[in-house]
Amino acid sequence: MVYSADYLIELRELGRIIRFVDRAAELGFLERVSSEGYVFPIAVYGPEGCGKTTLLKRFVRTVSSDDNVVAVYVDALEEGDPRRAIAATRSELIDIALELASSAVPVGRELARRVMKIVRLAVEKLALRGKNLVVIVDDVYRAIGLDSVDRYTKMMYEWIDYLHRSLGVERVAIILTTSEGVSKRELFKHTYVHVYMMWNLPRDGFEDLVDQLEPPRDLDREQLWILTGGNPRALIELAKLGWSTETWLSYVETRVEHLVQDLDRERLWKLVEDCDSDPELARALEDRNLMIALNRAMVLGQVPNPSRELGIGSRWAWQIPAYRVALRRYLEGGS
Q1: What is the tally of structural domains in the chain?
Q2: Domain C-terminal end among 197, 220, 237
Q3: CA 231 to chain centre
Q4: Domain of 213?
Q5: pLDDT in tens, 201-257
Q6: Quick check: 144 and 138 in contact, CB under 8 A?
Q7: Strands (E) located in 212-329
Q8: Span 146-204, pLDDT tens digits
Q9: Which of 78, 263, 166 is nearest to 86 (CA)?
Q10: Taking the complete model, does pTM exceed 0.90, yes or no?
Q11: How far apart are the first and last CA of the chain?
Q12: How far apart are CA 317 and CA 331, in angstroms?
């Protein structure tokens, strides 16, 4: 499958439209599972702002030209607009979802819970027998609650068999995403789901995004890379703040301070120096969306190389390097 650069993303806050950046390896993985199917649900986690949502919406657009693939995407965190909560390769799927969600609030959570009813109703309108089906529910665990992680994922696993045996779907892939550590750790306990990691943009893709956002010519791009680690949302935040790295770092430091002020300073210092030094504390920071456990065995795209400068270890990493920088500033300030 050829991936063109025609997928455009509107950044309203910047008054700018940009092209989809890189992610050829990740799109290739998704295309393979859509054509071959996958026996377990696939749970994808990664740093907040690394681009999971954009990737999945791009993927749905990619397969929309393939008559053999039927795909439906649900944004489980969408609060009120049903049309923003659903995307699909067939208009019938969207119509069914809109009817089911006509009075639901929050709409994304309701569609996440009823996504398989959407599929079952679609069987009555679409010839799904012999087709490949892809079901994507984005940020599902934050929407449905951590107490439902096991039940929801097991249900999705059981649906794969039902879709094959009872509805005649040829191949099935179910993709679920999460951005927080508790649900991801819960998923690792079970054999009926495979957990994959997605990382921030590689350097080439990052440079492409920087070019499209057009920072001042004299801005140090190496500094942008060292602070954001290729995280698209962090880079866009910087652009919103007029490319003032100091203003942005001050904002990040304030956030970090609020999240760590109840933790032991000496142990935090050790994590600043070596992010693999204290797994227990790293887990606490993962729950606060500052650090993240690395899954080097199953990665959608490139495996992040260990880098002291970027705060990436063998087992743990800072979600973006700026968190490590901000934590060091906070600790040095003696607050």
Answers
A1: 2
A2: 197
A3: 11
A4: 203-333
A5: 999 999 999 999 999 999 999 999 999 999 999 999 999 999 999 999 999 999 999
A6: no
A7: 291-293, 316-318
A8: 889 999 999 999 999 999 988 889 999 999 998 878 899 999 999 999 999 999 999 99
A9: 78
A10: yes
A11: 54
A12: 19
